[in-house]
Write a structure and sequence with these properties.
Blueprint: H1 5-13, E1 21-25, H2 29-40, E2 53-57, H3 58-63, H4 66-73, E3 83-89, H5 94-100, E4 109-114, H6 122-129, E5 133-137, H7 143-156, E6 160-161, H8 163-173, H9 177-191, E7 196-197, H10 199-206, H11 211-222, H12 226-238, H13 243-265, H14 270-275, H15 286-295, H16 298-315, H17 322-334
Parallel strand pairs: 1-4, 1-5, 2-3, 3-4, 6-7
Helix pairs in contact: 2-9, 5-6, 7-8, 7-9, 8-10, 8-11, 9-10, 11-12, 11-13, 12-17, 13-16, 16-17
């Protein structure tokens, strides 16, 4: 079964019992593992339970195809279902999974963790089309989604967080759900008994989370400063930030410029136009943002957004030198 974006979170929290095989895939490795863990916990409380959970690699199954049927048909010693996790899944597993889905276990659950799979992927197509399987995509989340995660996480621990602190931190940790969780947990430990999280506290605790480099990148590109843009890009690469997250950050920046520019052309004053941005524009970036509004015309903004979307599509093609392609795009745009 193929899930719409509205169905994903409810499915993750309570998987459809009809799905005996669940494929979790996408470029956000942290989000993929978190969702796989959440669904796995609906079957077993401990994913490391030696009796009720087993983890197999995709290569191991290709070497010993009968292992899947053996593990999936095994009975739990304590009753209930067992969990079979397959790591590093890929299209070579599709024939094996297709055969298994002809007569799957009605108690044990198979969860496959994979990287990014294109629309033509055999494994993805199999799980999307089969009535007794499901495919759960895990794409890089935008700042709005991460902001929601921040609020939900800190509130669950009994804390409150200021709006500007949420905006700053969301920009800092966008790109990888695992990294985002780590920074949020670090922030909560840092706060201790102080339940009011301010911007100063977030910047003190998470100042090295990558926000400065990402901000430097998008504002250097928008400000036509290629040397600074490439320096920021190199820093982000060293920090392990996915290229697709960088492209999304650039798209988000130019989309915000485009939205405000359109309102200005309709006669709205700049103060009111800026207030429509969500998340709000951080105060220290107001001046450079306004300067870029004057520097970039509507046709050029539209052309830039189209180009960034095309580049992101190219990065999803097999064999594409993603880092080089992204670097060339940053250099071209900033010139």
């Amino acid at each position: 079964m193929k899930l719409s974006w509205k169905q994903i979170e409810p499915f993750v929290k309570s998987p459809d019992p009809a799905a005996r095989v669940i494929l979790v895939y996408g470029p956000d490795n942290g989000l993929m593992r978190e969702r796989a863990r959440t669904m796995g916990n609906t079957i077993v409380a401990d994913l490391n339970d030696p009796f009720n959970a087993v983890t197999l690699s995709g290569d191991a199954l290709l070497d010993d195809p009968a292992r899947l049927a053996d593990e999936a048909s095994a009975m739990s010693m304590m009753g209930g279902g067992r969990l079979i996790r397959i790591e590093d899944g890929g299209d070579k597993l599709a024939p094996l999974l297709k055969e298994y889905l002809e007569s799957p276990s009605d108690q044990n659950l198979v969860i496959i963790e994979a990287g990014e799979l294109g629309p033509k992927s055999a494994l993805r197509a199999l799980c999307e089309k089969a009535k007794n399987a499901a495919a759960v995509p895990c794409y890089v989340e935008d700042e709005r989604s991460i902001a929601g995660l921040i609020r939900e996480s800190v509130q669950a621990e009994g804390y409150t967080i200021a709006g500007d602190a949420v905006s700053w931190l969301a920009g800092a940790i966008v790109g990888d759900r695992g990294r985002a969780r780590s920074e949020i947990e670090k922030l909560i430990l840092f706060m201790g008994e102080d339940k009011q999280i301010t911007l100063d506290a977030v910047q003190t605790c998470c100042g090295e989370a990558g926000a400065q480099s990402m901000d430097n990148l998008v504002y250097s590109v928008g400000g036509k400063n290629p040397a600074a843009a490439l320096k920021a890009y190199a820093t982000l690469m060293d920090e392990g930030i996915p290229a697709v997250a960088i492209l999304r950050a650039l798209q988000n920046h130019f989309r915000r410029l485009h939205m405000v520019k359109a309102r200005l052309q309709e006669g709205e004053d700049i103060g009111s136009a800026l207030k429509t941005l969500s998340p709000p524009l951080f105060f220290k970036f107001e001046d450079p943002f306004k300067a870029q509004l004057g520097r970039w015309s509507m046709p050029l903004l539209e052309k830039t957004l189209m180009r960034l979307a095309q580049i992101e599509a190219q990065t999803k093609q097999t064999g594409t030198p993603v880092e080089t392609l992204c670097g060339q795009a940053i250099l071209g745009l900033s010139k």
